[in-house]
Amino acid sequence: MTGGGSARRYFRMRSLAPAPWGDTVVGVIAPNAAEARAFVGLTRHLGAAGLPVPRLFASDEQECMYLVEDLGDVRLSDRLRAWRAEGGAGLAKARAALVATVRWLARFQVRGGKGLDWTLCFEGVELSGDAFRGDLGLFLGQYVPGFVRGPGPDAPVLADLERLIERLDRVPRQHLCHRDFQTRNIMWPHDGPVFLDYQGCRRGPLAYDLASLLYSPDSGLTETEREPVMTAYLQALEAEGARQEPDSFCRDFYAIVLVRRLQALGAYARIAAAEGKREYLAKIPSALATLRELFAADRMALGLPNLEHWLRGALAGDGRPVR
């Protein structure tokens, strides 16, 4: 099976005799033992908390292998695309699916962090300043050299970037952060979501996952359409006992949106160049369009004028490699 941008290898296997998982099961070979341990441990913990993750049937963490429920091939991104093509009632289904997804996200973040063995988080326990620095480093190291035709960031721009990191490092990190919460990492086998690719999760800001979902190009949302989905998410957090003051939440939300979208540009550039998956280049123009819309709506007025000025120029290209 295809693994997207992952180094994991996936196999769909059919049973020759009756088995507890039904006719088929998905076998996974992870790149290393730490990642396999993280996925297996997190799947057990999240499943026991009643959260929408695949059932785990067997594992061999030393050999970096495990067997999980076969959820089919339909992701939330596929469902959204089909529903939007229908128009009318299909658009209502797409909106309802995103609302259902963010309600489950709130439960995942709050319930998933309770009683968790945080040593499972093999890439780091917290999504702190170093993690944000890594996100921006991916953009500066992969996207900027290959896709930006103008000058790179100068000292004042780099100073603004450091101020942005310091600001985000002060955002509370009390709950579980999925770390890569986008529609392609959410299966939709029947009438609800099942989350995948949470092995990189850690304790982090609540807004990070919501920003990842709402501003993913596959979500296909306009700024007006994002507002009721965010409201549903905040209501779900309150129901979980993790109420957020809307104004305070939004104050940091758009700073996180910026970092998350810049990280995505860096990831697309890296996967296309280093792994030869050229299809990721097709994701760049829509990611650029989203960022331009945010700048046009003054959502990126973060008190970092040097960074804002440079980014307006750096993101003005057509998304094609410069070489």
**What characteristic shape results from the CA principal axes?**
globular
| CATH fold-level name of the largest domain | Aminoglycoside 3'-phosphotransferase, Chain: A, domain 2
Ends apart, CA distance between termini = 32 Å
Query: How many E strands?
Result: 8
Helix content: 40-55%
What is the ordering of alpha helices and beta strands? Answer: EEHEEHHHHEEEEHHHHH
Estimate the strand proportion: 5-15%
Put simply, the count of helices is: 10
Oligomer: single chain
Helix and strand content put the structural class at alpha+beta
Q: Uncertain spans, ≥5 residues at pLDDT below 50?
A: none
* Main sheet: strands, sense, barrel: 4 strands, antiparallel
pLDDT averaged residue by residue: 93
Can you identify the CATH superfamily of the largest domain? Answer: Aminoglycoside phosphotransferase (APH), C-terminal lobe
Cross-sheet strand order for the largest sheet = 1-2-4-3
What is the CATH class of the largest domain?
Answer: Alpha Beta
Report Rg: 20 Å
CATH architecture identity of the largest domain: Alpha-Beta Complex
- How many separate domains? 2
